[in-house]
# Entry
Amino acid sequence: GDVGELDARVSVCRACPRLVAWRESVATTGRRASFADQPYWGRPGPGVGDPAPRVLVVGLAPAANGTNRTGRMFTGDRSGDWIYAALYRAGYASQPDSWAAGDGLKLTGARIVAAVRCAPPANRPTPEERHTCGHWLDRDLELAAPGLRSMLALGAIGWDAALASARRLGWTVPRPKPRFGHGAQAELVTADGHPIRLLGSYHVSQQNTFTGRLTEAMLDAVIARL
Ligand code: SF4
# Structure
């Protein structure tokens, strides 16, 4: 299969009962008042961007009123403003914002996926949900591997998910397990022997961007090392 087929399969997954219930309840009776007149996607967020990426961005999970509403990763919420603006500054994105699935955004050389593809209550997936959804990430890494050069993990959950997938695919991962931090770096080697650089950044969540824990300059500095 190819990336389009993978995205199509992800977008109809129902493997995690708690997350299926949550994503659908937000999309029906739980819409944010300001979006009450809009249709919600209410399904898993498939990957977005270049089908043969040099860079894979691994986020945490869709936002209940962001991706779970618009159907595209980091689209229609404040986190998206941050990551797409940074990808635009670095030349990967055709525009600096991402408000709706039909807005013409194009990514070149980069693809965005997530550790967990369904919006979790309180943005907190369980370990079991992270493990279950990790199998979709395995497929993403496997399909991207031939041309992949680096991965950007947003937050510790994205970092752990990327390392877990790499291990399941038989890639070489440093021991002891590399620790997440802003600017953390780990050198992985794919099963066919080429190096992949994993970089960590604090997540582009509002808790980090509103408080100044993550600044644009900090994010740009990590993206420049991809
Ligand atoms: Fe499927 Fe992942 Fe959503 Fe679970 S979180 S239902 S594995 S897409």
Remarks:
- Residues 3-223 form a domain with the Uracil-DNA Glycosylase, subunit E fold (CATH 3.40.470.10).
- The pocket of iron/sulfur cluster is lined by residues 10, 13-16, 19-20, 44, 116-118, 129, 132-133, 136 (CB under 6 Å).
